[in-house]
Each structure stands twice: as structure tokens, then as C-alpha cells.
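re: ur question from earlier - yeah i can do the single chain one, its not a big deal. heres the input i used so u can compare w yours
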Amino acid sequence: MLNHQTLVALSRDPISEKLVFELKDRALQFGVSLHSVGNQTANGSYHLERWSSNQHLDIAQRESLRSIATGYKTDLCFLRSDLIPQDICVLAMDMDSTLINIECIDEIADFTGKKSAVAEITEATMRGEIKDFKESLRRRVALLEGVHADALESVYRERLKPNPGAIELLAGANQRGLYTLLVSGGFTFFTEKLHQQLGFKQTQANTLEIIDGKLTGRVLGNIVDGSAKAAYLDEACRVLGCTKARAITMGDGANDLIMMNGSGISVAYQAKPVVKEKADAAFDHVGLDAALLLIA
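and the output i got, formated as C-alpha cells:
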């Protein structure tokens, strides 16, 4: 393990000197020195400042610094000091509650009056309390039996919105030539539309069985869970002739952690605590497109 890191602060507003003082003071309490790397920069949407630390910060130390930054509506990222941003060639991300603003399955369930029952299982799964994602998905999909297939289109048109910065993130990633991969434990009905709308190179998700215009409450084929997400990323990297260390990954739930682990930069977006504490970056105040600054 490297014995030092690069810290990056991201904010929609100028980063205050008081925040910088508090971060450095708290770090010193851990016996860690933070040294400024360049000056604060701005790109129009976000402000960025970097420091190098002389030691590797553990989870508790990172969370302590993040708690300070949150008071200033600032997000902190802890990157490997040997990371070469220009080497990142893959962007892999989750869909529900990461790329988009909803959990699609919860909204479909709303058409049956079972949204709260489905959402309860979804939340427990994303927090990591239900370990078997496949079983969790089967239980939730079973509650959708009898829903008219038109409900999927209604969810897409009336409720689904890209999260802040999503459109800009994909535009920037595609312009740079990154291989963009959307891997979802959700459904192909939505990933295929987002594939066209945002220009992903590849999308993978689960297929709902529909017979006579209605959902049967079953999923066709193999279920895309956390292990499958990671496998799709590994395969994309293999085809490209690169390693996972040259990928930036983004997710919000526990089933994204296998994919995120070992990637060059892992980003937790509006994520559950179990994901935030393990991710290199936690975005709670900036949009998805702020990730482009980490690989600039």
C-alpha cells in the first residue's frame, strides 16, 4: 500500500480558507501533514483544491475529514498518489439512484400500490442488510406481477430524470474517448433508452418477462448482481487491453462495491454509508460531472 495520498476538495462555491485550516488541523491530530498542490482552480461549475498527505489515511480518518468538509458543502476525494489521470480509459457506472434520480423498480411498483413494500426491500439491499441481491430482486419483481407493460414507459417519461451532471459527464467522457459502460441491477427497458439518449458504448441489465402485455413477476436469464457488474467491467477492460486500475467507477449501493473495488477511482454518488466509507470519492454536493475533474 502506498504511504501517501492526494486529497481533492470539490465544491460548487469557492473553497474557504477556514475549511482548509480545519482540514489541515484535523489531519495534524492524526499525525498527517497536508501540503497544497497548486492553487485553487475553477472550471465554471466547480471549484477544486488539491493537497498531498505524507501518510495513508484510514477509513475513520477519511470520514472525520469528510464530516468537516460537509459543513462547508464540499466533497472530499482521496486518490492514490501514483494515479495518472490521463490513463483512465473506462467509465463504468450504476443506473438507479446513480445515473438517474429513481429506483425504477420502486416506481413500477407504485402502479400496483406496492411501492412501499418494494422500496423497503430495495433500501435494505442497497444498505447491504440483504446480502443476496438475486433473491432480493426476485422478491421485488414478484410483486410486479400483473402490471401492464405500459407502466414502464410511464415511469421513463414521467418520473425518470438524469441526476445533476449526468448528461455533462457522458458528453465529456465520450468526447475524451472513454469506453462508457452502464451496468445495472435494474432493467433493460430503461438502460436501452439511456444507451441511446446519453451515448453509452455498452449497457447491461435484467430483462423483465412480459406476456400478453403484462409483467409476469419474473426475470429472464441470468440476474445482473454485484458480481456480474464487476465481471462486465473486467471483460470490457480485457477487450480494451487495460486493467481495472484504468477505470473510474460510480455507484450508490452495496451491490456496486465489487465493481468499484480495485478501480483507479471509485466514486460514491449520494451513496449509502457502507459505500461512501469504502469509495475514493464521495459526491454529496457536486454533480456527477465533477468526476471529469478527477481525470483531467
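The radius of gyration is 20 Å. not sure if urs matches, ping me
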